[in-house]
Amino acid sequence: MSPLMKSVEKAGLKGMSGKRNPAAISATDFFTTGEVLRKEFAKLINAPVANRIVIIPSASYGLANAANNIKLKKGEKVIVAGEQFPSNYYPWHQLCKETGATLQTISAPDTKTQRGKKWNEKILEAIDSSTRLVALGNIHWADGTLFDLKKIRKRTLETGTLLVIDGTQSVGALPFDVKSIQPDALICAGYKWLMGPYSIGLAYYGPAFDNGNPIEENWINRLNSEDFAGLINYQDAYHHGALRYEVGEHSNFILVPMLLEALRQVNQWGPKNIQEYCGKISFRTVELLKENGFWVEDDSFRAKHLFGVRVPASKDINVIKSKLQKNKISVSYRGDAIRISPHLYNQEKDLITLARVLLS
Question: Which of 234, 269, 304 is the last residue of a domain?
């Protein structure tokens, strides 16, 4: 979870105070800030139009909308990566269970050399004419292994396979280009690398989900919902693009301005610059750890803002946890990896201190 910037906190407090006098909230206020937020996210991911961007409360909500509109049958399969984040596993597990389709998990190869390269090759080899969907992150959430989405997308287009990406662990700190990758859906929680608050996120849905059925029916997603006096004139049609998939009450007058303020700053920094900075300040630390028997994914198949460290057999992970806590170093533990997540608020000396504690 990212820290909250002061400017984002200020936007939230302003939104809270606005509820003191609800008479000052106009009908247009239900729509305007959300429209600006969609445009800001479209800019971040290089999406061609903003009406394919929708506001969601969580990654699981965005993935549920995708799962609700994918038809599977026996003999077809869904591909996921081994030990990927549960929110991008459970909907496909349930869908396969209901339809008799096969959920194929592509686990990481049991090797310490060229692991990322070989893992990507295994995924590409598994995609065939029976594959209906590939559901991945841009990186693996435990150790930062990069999945080559361009090659994977090329293969899925050849086989008529959908590609759904959970970008929660990467979008905002790692460049993502919708025009280049052409995902059918990209789902992002807002509280990590988008630097926003909890319980709000954003999703992109491509043409494959046009005319689909959202998981909820709410008034604000329907055509002409801006006309409050005319809401009793019920509409079968939704707003254009993917807006049918937005969560109810997505006008949220507290969280939407906060996420908007966060995205403006992220766009100003630029994910490419964030990635380069994180790589620069962590370079020496990664080299030190590798030289001393720790495992880190190969640089060419690893994100720089999030990467996993696996300890040598000679080290006691419980002792390491105690030392890190004593030195007030905040990391995560995912599977058998210690997950390191630097950002612009870190300096090289922070990473060097981490390395010294791990090596001690």
Answer: 269
CA distance 109 to 265: 38
Mean pLDDT over the full length of the chain: 95
How far is C-alpha 141 from the geometric centre of its chain's CA atoms? 10
**Residue 201: which of 163, 274, 145, 252 has the closest Cα?**
252
Q: How many domains does the chain have?
A: 2
> 178 with 188: CB under 8 angstroms?
no
CATH number reported for the structural domain that contains residue 51 in this entry: 3.40.640.10
Asked if residue 2 lies in contact with residue 192, where contact means CB atoms within 8 angstroms, the answer is yes
Whole-number pLDDT of residue 2: 95
Structure tokens at 266: 């992220």
Q: Are strands 185-189 and 162-166 parallel, antiparallel or unpaired?
A: parallel
3-state SS of 165-230?
EECCCCECCECCCHHHHCCCEEEEECCCCCCCCCCCEEEEECHHHCCCCCCCCCHHHECCCCCHHH
pLDDT in tens, 236-260: 989 999 999 999 999 999 999 999 9
Co-location of 229 and 160 in the same domain: yes
Q: Which domain holds residue 96?
A: 6-269
pLDDT tens-digit series, residues 64-117: 999 999 999 999 999 999 999 999 999 999 999 999 999 999 999 998 889 999
Give Cα 328 distance to the centre of its chain.
27
Give the per-residue pLDDT at 315.
Answer: 86
Q: What is the CATH number of the domain that holds 278?
A: 3.90.1150.10
